[in-house]
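Worked example

This section walks through a single chain of length 263. The input is the sequence exactly as stored; nothing has been trimmed or padded.
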Amino acid sequence: MTGPRVSLSTSSVYPETAAHAFGWAARLGYDAVEVMVALDKVSQDPAAVRRLSEHHGLPVSAIHAPTLLFTQRVWGTEPWAKLQRSAEMAHEVGAEVVVVHPPFRWQKEYAAGFVDGIAALEESTGIAFAVENMYPWRASQRRGVEMYLPGRDPSTEPYANTVIDLSHAAIAHDDPIAMAERLGDRLRHVHLTDGTGSAKDEHLVPGRGSMDAAGFLRHLVGAGFSGEVVLEINTRRCSTREEREADLRESLEFAREHLAVRA
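Given that input, the structure is written out below as tokens.
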């Protein structure tokens, strides 16, 4: 049996560090690690990440740029400089992809040149900048405010590389299979997780929400998806290491089961 490579996002073990994430990934049998550049100093240090990768024998599948709300001040506040630094880190650790969120609505100048700027960065760096689907910010199930520009759905813009995150699709009430079909071979990266459709970004273990994560993975296999599948789940409520290990193991087994195809 074979299938796409399955990685673990370092965010999946928060509040543990990127160093812990490499240890978990190696112990449980993940194929690679996606490093989210966050408040953890190890995640911001390319040399430290490279040493972890070499020590555990696990490649780095992607660098997640610090473009989240809580990482707005990581590596400074100038967004293009942060993306350039993310590309440099990707080169240093051997990753081919940088994951990036679209600009917030208040970042008007950044947003105005975002589509062309991403294309220019890909050209100048040789790194794929995969733009992730996002969601409205909702005060209720009925009303939402679009907080991302030029938009939350990457299939509406001519990005060469994109990401589908199932938790984000759940909040937006988007159909991830339909989005994948619109994207075609521009879908480079998947954040495998789950959600119930609430206003919270839940990042559940896949299979515990309502997004039919199994059907989505089977669709990817049938469509010949050759990108990266990254488990990005929330384990911060786990009260013991045993609980965290169970969630990380269940997620990996779920991915392998539904991605497997006969060689």
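What to look for: The mean pLDDT is 94.
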